[in-house]
Write a structure and sequence with these properties.
The protein is of the alpha/beta class. 62% of the residues lie in helices and 13% in strands. It is found in: Cell membrane.
Amino acid sequence: MRSIIELLFQTNRRRFLIGTLLGVTGSGSFLLLIGFTNRLLQPNARVDITGIALFIALTMTAALLMAMSQHSLARFGCEKAAEIRRNLVTHILATSHKDCEDVGAQRLYAALTDDLDAVSVAIWSLSSLVINVGVTVGGLAYLAWVSPPFFLCSIVILAAGLMLSRMLMARMHANIRTGSVTEYKLHKHYEGLLQGGKELRLDPAKLKFFLHHELGRSIDDLKEHRVRSNLYLALGNAWSNVLLFLVIGAVLTIGYTVLQESVHVVAIYIITLLFLRNPINTIVDLTPVYFRGTIALDHLRQLGLRVTHAADLTVQCAQVSLHGAVTRLELDSVSYRHAGPDGAFALGPVSLTAEQGEIVFVSGGNGSGKTTLMKVVCGLYEPAGGRVLIDGREIHREDRDRVRLFSAVLNDSYVFDFLSPDGEQTPDAATVDRLLREQGLDALVRYENGRLVHSGLSQGQQKRLGLVSVLIEDSPVVIFDEWAANQDMHFKASFYEDVLERLRAAGKIVFVVTHDTTWFHKADRVVHLEDGRVVDTGKATTGLREIAALDGRV
């Protein structure tokens, strides 16, 4: 398991070492200040103007160096935390859509929130941790210089006490690990609460079971983990305070009875130990924060997410406005396989050609592979075999700019509130308003300053807003996956009779996944799938009745 310090040292050791050196220097200045103060406590010491000036100079120097160190390390930590956020996001975007589906939205969301927050807090707290460790080490070195016998006695007591502290910390760290698993489960239950609220309200027995045995149990488990962690932390803090005073008591006892040290040496020791009380407590408080960040960093790596380097998205982000005409899209014996909850699924081999201005309907029963085929077409899924060609050129995953050739409204599509990526001309407000009006969204959605503003839409309205976005994007290849399934007859008729004809006239290649056999005559070609295989294709004017019968049978 790599630590946060290893991460920072590896990525920018120069800045990290400079901040650490400033902290060590500041710690040394404080220790000089303590030594100077102790000299003034001697019976024959005299305070003059020079001494006062030196005291003030040491105080200001120590404070300035500590402030510079903390600011330097904190700024470095904030920049590194922001860099890690960007890197994590770019790696998620660079990861294939299928791999993200396999990991699961809940785990990725937990990584972007809980784990990333824990790493960020650990990085931000590292400046205080480094400074206080420096002060503590320097203080112990000063005590060793003042009286080696005292120091050896103190170290023996501290070592015995730290063994108990280590046991408490080990229990707390183990509890943090199991608690992070419980947090993931709780996120999953939150998703069920928000997305399955209708089903819960319709079934009181299911609601009761979910509330008390699923969500409720996770909440209680997380509470117990937090309570135990805080208990171990409280015991650790209390023991560190007790341990310090045990050392002070030992110094007083041994100093006067065994070593017969002077009152001055004993006073120096006690003053220095009291000064070290705050740094030691800070180290005890921040250690679990640092360890939680290290655990979270390990979680991110277990998901295969890299945090040290940004993924190469330069090709995806380049040529944002590239929407050149596509005259021909071809699938040449394309196949795809994946393992699902109901067993392995195989698509293909599928061979298909779509020309510019052609509308292709894709039909088939549930689980026949319609959505999978569309994801292969637009590149969200990488085919296991065969080739996808655009205008005769084979398209590979490395050809990142291919995503700029496609627009899609899938079943689970998300519509962003901005319609024009950075660098593109903002869509004309009159055009957007007209499209919103056509889709019956003008009373629900406003177009302001290049963004779509609304307070929430139904699934059907969300799909209509996705259609508006697709029409604005003006990509050469357009995919609709069961778009009309959630629409009333007015918008369904408008889609098949008006929208598709406009796309045809604009020279787009359009794929429509649909069960609406009534509208099959609007297609130039109908492709029917069964169990991942094309069982029939035909022109809308020929063989349509047979394809419709197949679709109804499945």
